[in-house]
Write a structure and sequence with these properties.
heterodimer; A: mainly beta; 2 domains; 13-stranded mixed sheet; two-stranded parallel sheet; B: alpha+beta; Alpha-Beta Plaits; three-stranded antiparallel sheet; 35% strand
Chain lengths: 264, 314
């Protein structure tokens, strides 16, 4: 297991796009320490902030994560990244495979555009978790994003595929959703606002947009498959499906092929 | 040709001639085992012979809830056709008319294989644009795609595509030469039970048994197949009859399987089961049907099946 251990707080935000197990496995310790991770003209290198221990394995541990580490695990295709601490924005952005685990909190846009792999945030996530970055076509796009704590507003905004499991989500959860599945124990107002397709499963919710219509209670085979899937990710969320469920169809302001399942 | 003996019953030293076919398997589930079986029985109806029915189909296994993707009782169905396109056509028609229509039923791929057949992806058009697709990993973590098609009892859930296997074989067979109809039928029933118990093998004829074995062509112009006159007891004594004087009835079982080994295992099981009780039920001999060995690539020699283990096809 390769390890990066924080030596001193970085003087600026750091961009970890190029720091992943596969890239580091090809480098010597000296080469890795020279990798540029700064975001200003100062030219901060990895070795300035982290002590580097490499063993060529497909697992990378970052000890002493902090909210200034942006794009941790972005574009990851294989291997595992484990962060002890917090991370900044765009955790796992565009990742295609592998796993990322963050023991602390994550900034905004975690999992944006991620097409594969599993991201787990043990703490909270910022706004737009699993959401689309500005001008992007899609948010979460096939990966699995698990936020054990709370996520901010616009969680799963324009998500297109994949599964997003979150403890509590703020307003506009699943807004403009293209497709995919979002399960939350609680969501704020206007969940699913403007969603085209996709499934929201929620325990409690705030105000629902009037463009959602209740279709009643249904015992669908799909829910059995969803329960099996969620049991692997979060027993608490899978338990929502054991409660009586009401289904809302919408958003009728769009093509209305989405749904919100509300557990009683 | 020297004859063989198994459990005191004469076994003709010949072979069953079988053919390469396109084969697939699906799993249908329902809230109750009863309705899963109704769906499966309906879908596998009128599927005894590829020539006349377009497909050969049968029930391979009854599945318990922990063996199915959605945790409900289920049935595994095998379907065989001459070639992949014909198989696809039959599969979509039969699922569309018999599984989609059956209350509570869902449909999943039942076998892995190299050739993809679009199933839910074709039937979704019944949903008139209201159907939605969902991707989800199965119990093994493999991503699967399902269509949720709105219907009047809720939704029909159908896997987007199923797989056709390479190496499926159709036409394995055994012929039982008996004295009376009732006793020979009993022998054939026992053989069917044993042969059908082999996983991945089905016997598509009524109860697994066919009484109208056929030969290629006929005296009437244009007939693709006609009665196997050599084995008709009312034609005994004529030139070409293969029946001994004491034979009063011949019944045949026909076997299709996803693999050649499945046909071989199934024929072996049927042969042994039939001969074990055959002595008490007037069984005279067991033989197999072939076309001289020139039409089918797979030859299952009864000589090889007499041993309990080993010997696959020649």
């Amino acid at each position: 297991m390769s390890t990066l251990t924080l030596r001193q707080a970085p003087p600026e935000r750091l961009d970890f796009l190029t720091i992943n197990p596969l890239a580091l496995s090809r480098l010597s310790k000296a080469e890795a320490e020279r990798l540029p991770v700064g975001t200003s003209r100062r030219g901060v290198s990895l070795g300035e902030c982290f002590s580097v221990a490499l063993d060529g394995s497909d697992t990378l541990t970052i000890e002493g994560g902090l909210e200034r580490l942006d794009r941790v695990g972005a574009a990851l295709s294989e291997g595992e990244i484990r962060v002890a601490g917090d991370v900044g924005q765009r955790l796992g952005e565009g990742m295609a495979g592998g796993t990322i685990t963050v023991t602390g909190h994550a900034g905004p846009y975690a999992g944006a555009g991620a097409t594969g792999g599993v991201i787990t945030i043990e703490g909270d996530a910022g706004d737009h978790a699993g959401g689309a970055v500005y001008a992007a076509r899609a948010g979460l796009d096939g990966a699995t994003l698990i936020v054990r704590g709370a996520a901010g507003a616009h969680c799963g905004d324009r998500m297109r595929r994949g599964t997003l499991v979150v403890g509590r989500a703020g307003v506009y959860a699943g807004a403009r959703m293209i497709a995919g599945t979002l399960a939350a124990l609680e969501v704020g107002d206007d969940a699913g606002y403007g969603m085209r397709r996709g499934t929201l499963l929620v325990g409690r919710h705030g105000r629902l947009s009037p463009t959602f219509v209740e279709t009643g209670a249904h015992d669908l085979v799909y829910l059995r498959l969803l329960a099996r899937h969620l049991r692997v990710l979060s027993a608490e969320h899978a338990a929502l499906l054991e409660r009586p469920l009401r289904r809302y169809s919408g958003d009728l302001a769009t093509i209305a092929k989405g749904e919100i399942w509300v557990a009683a | 040709m020297s004859d063989l003996t198994l459990n005191g019953i004469r076994v003709i030293d010949t072979f069953a001639e079988a053919f390469d076919v396109a084969g697939t398997a699906i799993v249908v589930t329902n809230d109750t085992a009863k309705w899963a079986m109704i769906a499966a029985t309906t879908m596998t109806g009128f599927a005894t012979s590829v020539i006349g029915c377009g497909a050969e189909a049968g029930i391979d296994a009854v599945l318990s809830p922990d063996e199915t993707p959605d945790g409900r009782p289920g049935v595994r169905i095998l379907l065989f056709g001459f070639e992949p396109n014909g198989l696809k056509d039959q599969l979509v028609k039969r699922v569309g008319q018999c599984i989609l229509t059956c209350p509570g039923t869902a449909c999943y791929a039942g076998v892995d294989g190299p050739n993809k057949i679009k199933l839910g992806g074709a039937i979704r058009y019944f949903g008139d644009g209201f159907a939605v697709a969902k991707r989800m990993p199965d119990a093994t973590g493999r991503e699967r795609r399902y269509w949720r098609i709105p219907v009047m009892d809720g939704e029909f859930l159908c896997e987007d595509s199923v797989r056709a296997v390479e190496g499926a074989v159709g036409g394995g067979n055994l012929l039982f030469l008996g004295r009376t109809h009732a006793e020979t039928l009993r022998v054939a029933e026992v053989a069917v039970e044993a042969a059908a118990a082999v996983p991945g093998a089905i016997l598509p004829f009524p109860g697994g048994i066919v009484r109208s074995g056929s030969k290629v062509g006929g005296r009437t112009k244009g007939m693709m197949a006609s009665t196997n006159d050599a084995y008709c007891p009312t034609l005994k004594g004529r030139a070409g009859s293969a029946l001994p004087p004491e034979c009063g009835v011949v019944l045949e079982i026909v076997i299709d399987a996803l693999t050649s080994q499945g046909v071989s295992d199934s024929m072996r099981a049927g042969l042994h089961a039939a001969t074990e009780i055959g002595g008490r039920h007037g069984l005279i001999a067991v033989t197999a049907g072939n076309y001289g060995g020139n039409l089918g690539r797979h030859h299952y020699h009864l000589r090889d099946l007499i041993a309990r283990d080993g010997g696959a096809e020649a």
